[in-house]
Amino acid sequence: MRNRFLSLAMGATMLVSVAACSTTANTATFNTAALNNDATAIAYAVQAIEGIPDLESHLSTTDKAKFDNLVAQIKSVTAQVAANSNGSITVATGKDWAKSLGADLETLLAIATPIVKTYSPSAANYMTTVEAMIPLVEALAGVTASPYAAPVQSPELIRARIYQGV
Q1: Which range is most confident: 50-54, 80-84, 152-156?
Q2: Kindly report the CA angle at 137 between 136 and 141, in degrees rounded to 5?
Q3: What are the boundaries of the signal sequence (predicted)?
Q4: CA separation (Å) from 83 to 46, 63, 86, 89, 104?
């Protein structure tokens, strides 16, 4: 019974995510309200990660430059989403701006997480929570459509945990 419930929950999550995006060969149409919810949570998380004590002081010069560039890219994408969150938007998939949000966040976490685990272990769980946003955004952006990629937690729960700092 539990497996059946889990399968239904995963299927429902994927239906919500897939319904928020439709893709043709050259364009993708996004439900910007749904994408904006996730982008806003990611922007909040990035700001919280930037504020983790000792993080930036322990980054190498190269990683600091990458980190700052990724923060700027994520802020740019989330600003674009916020500016267009009044319904839906169709974009050329060659631009990949929505897809880059998940990839940029993943790279930022790859740089920051080892340092956070070492110097701010109390914030390490937060990094895991933020990481849970990646498959949500990727599914919404049409990067992954596999039901196996569906998160067990709902997008609402993950966003709430990000805002709560857990």
Answers
A1: 50-54
A2: 120
A3: 1-27
A4: 19, 30, 8, 11, 20
The band of 82, judged by pLDDT with boundaries at 50, 70 and 90, is confident
Could you tell me how many residues make up the chain? 166
* CA 164/CA 92 separation, integer angstroms: 35
In one-letter notation, the amino acid at residue 109 is L
Both structure tokens of 125: 């769980």
Specify the pairing of strand 27-31 against strand 88-92: antiparallel
Query: What domain range is 35 assigned to?
Result: 2-164
Lookup: tokens for 56: 């930036």
Domains contained in the chain, number: 1
Which position has the token pair 């299927």?
Answer: 11
The distance in angstroms from the start CA to the end CA of the chain is 30
Determine the Cα–Cα distance for residues 23 and 19; give it in Å rounded to an integer. Answer: 11
Contacts of 81 (CB under 8 A, 6+ apart): 32, 35, 36, 39, 98
Quick one: 51 exposed, middle or buried, by C-beta within 10 A (0-12, 13-18, 19+)? Answer: exposed
